[in-house]
Design brief:
- β5 (123-127), α6 (152-171) and β6 form a beta-alpha-beta unit.
- Helix content is 42%, strand content 15%.
- The model has no long low-confidence stretch (mean pLDDT 94).
- It is globular and about 60 Å long.
- The protein has helices at residues 18-29, 46-49, 66-75, 90-95, 97-118, 152-171, 194-203, 223-235, 257-267, 293-299, 307-329; strands at 9-13, 33-38, 57-60, 80-83, 123-127, 175-180, 182-184, 209-210, 217-218, 220-222, 246-249, 255-256, 276-277.
- The protein is built from eleven helices and 13 strands.
- The strands form four sheets. The protein has a seven-stranded parallel sheet with strand order 3-2-1-4-5-6-11, sandwiched between helices.
Length: 330
C-alpha cells in the first residue's frame, strides 16, 4: 500500500452500496479524507455495520440534486470523485424506468456538471457496467464494442457512458469509465442476486431458486478486486492517454448461472441441494463477458482474487452476518 491517498479529499457517491462500502473502508484505511453521499439510512449496510460512517464526512442527499453535489464538492474541496451511486437492479429498472433514468443518467450528468462548475476536481471515475454494451453477437466485449443497450437498465448505462465521453471531449473534464460484470461479495443484501441468495439458501439448507433457465453467462467480479481496480485506475489518471477512456475489469471467466450456483454449493459442502429452475427471466441479456486486455496492457492491471477466493470470503461474511442476525433475535 502506497501513500497516494493520504490526506486526499475523496467524494464517494453510493457509499452505502456494495462497492461503495468497501471503497469507503479501503480509502479510510489509506488515510484519505472521505466524503460520502448517502441517500437513505440503511442500517444493515456495511457502512453502518462496520462503523465507517463515524470515520467519514457524511452528506445526506441525492445525485439527482445538482445544488447538493456542487456544494459538497466545493465546500469539502474534493480532489477525486468515485461516482458509484446508481439504481442497479434490472427488475426494478423494468418496473420503474423513469426513476432508473433519473438516477443513472441525470445523476451522472449532475456529478460531471458539478465537477465542471467547481473546476478543481482532478480525477473522476464513473462506474458503468458490462450492460452498457447491450446484447452482442461477438464476445467477449472489449472497449471498442458499440454501446447499444435496449432495456431500461442497459440503456441507462449506455447513456451515462456517452455523457462521460462528451464531458471529456467538450470540456476536458478528467473522467474515466469502468465497466465491470456482476459484483459479488459480503455486504450485498439484495438477495435477488444469485450469489447471496445461493449462500443464504445453502446456510438454511434450502434449494436456491434460479429465475432464468440457468444457462445465462455472466462475468462475476469480486467486490474487493473491484475496489483495487478503481483505485489503481485513479492513480494512473495523471497520464494523459488514460483520461477520457473506458476500461473493462474482469477475471475473464465465462461462468453460467448454474455453474456459479454449483460452485458455491460445492464450497459450502451442500452439493445435495438441487436448484429449482423457473425459467422466468425477462429483459435480460443471455451471454455477457468481458475482455480486460486494455486494462492489462495500458494500466498493468490484473485481478488479485480468484473466483474461489472471492466466493470463500463472501461465504464467510454471510455466515457471520446471518448468524449474528439469528443471535440478535433470540
Amino acid at each position: 500500500m502506497n501513500d497516494f491517498w493520504q490526506d486526499r479529499s475523496v467524494l464517494i457517491t453510493g457509499c452505502t452500496g456494495l462497492l461503495g462500502s468497501w471503497m469507503t473502508q479501503e480509502l479510510v484505511a489509506r488515510g484519505a479524507k472521505v466524503v460520502g453521499l448517502v441517500r437513505d439510512w440503511t442500517p444493515q449496510s456495511r457502512l453502518f455495520q462496520e462503523g465507517l460512517e463515524r470515520k467519514i464526512t457524511t452528506v445526506y442527499g441525492r445525485i439527482e440534486d445538482l445544488p447538493t453535489l456542487e456544494r459538497t464538492i466545493n465546500e469539502y474541496e474534493v480532489e477525486t470523485v468515485f461516482h458509484l451511486a446508481a439504481q442497479t437492479i434490472v427488475g426494478a429498472a423494468n418496473r420503474e424506468p423513469l426513476a432508473t433514468f433519473e438516477a443513472n443518467i441525470k445523476g451522472t450528468w449532475n456529478i460531471l456538471e458539478a465537477c465542471r462548475r467547481v473546476g478543481k476536481v482532478g480525477r473522476i471515475v464513473v462506474a458503468s457496467s458490462d450492460k452498457a454494451y447491450g446484447d452482442q453477437e461477438v464476445l467477449p466485449y472489449d472497449e471498442t464494442t458499440p454501446l447499444q443497450g435496449e432495456h431500461p437498465y442497459d440503456v441507462s448505462k449506455s447513456c451515462a457512458d456517452l455523457i462521460c465521453r462528451t464531458y471529456y471531449k467538450s470540456y476536458n473534464l478528467p473522467v474515466c469509465v469502468t465497466r465491470c460484470g456482476n459484483f459479488y461479495g459480503g455486504g450485498d443484501l439484495n438477495f435477488n442476486r444469485i450469489v447471496p441468495d445461493t449462500i443464504r439458501s445453502a446456510l438454511r439448507d434450502r434449494p436456491v431458486v434460479i429465475r432464468s433457465d440457468g444457462s445465462y453467462i455472466r462475468d462475476y467480479f469480486y467486490v474487493r478486486d473491484g475496489v483495487l481496480a478503481y483505485l489503481h485506475l485513479a492513480e494512473q489518471m495523471d497520464r494523459p492517454e488514460i483520461l477520457g477512456e473506458a476500461f473493462n475489469f474482469s477475471n475473464e471467466l465465462q461462468v453460467s448461472v448454474l455453474e456459479i450456483v454449483r460452485k458455491v454449493l460445492t464450497l459450502m459442502d451442500k452439493d445435495h441441494l438441487q436448484p429449482q429452475i423457473l425459467n422466468q427471466a425477462q429483459n435480460e441479456i443471455k451471454h455477457q463477458y468481458l475482455s480486460a486486455a486494455k486494462a492489462r496492457q495500458l494500466l498493468n492491471w490484473s485481478p488479485s482474487y480468484s473466483l474461489e477466493e472471492g466466493l470463500q470470503e463472501a461465504i464467510s461474511w454471510y455466515t457471520d452476518f446471518l448468524d449474528s442476525k439469528v443471535s440478535s433475535c433470540k
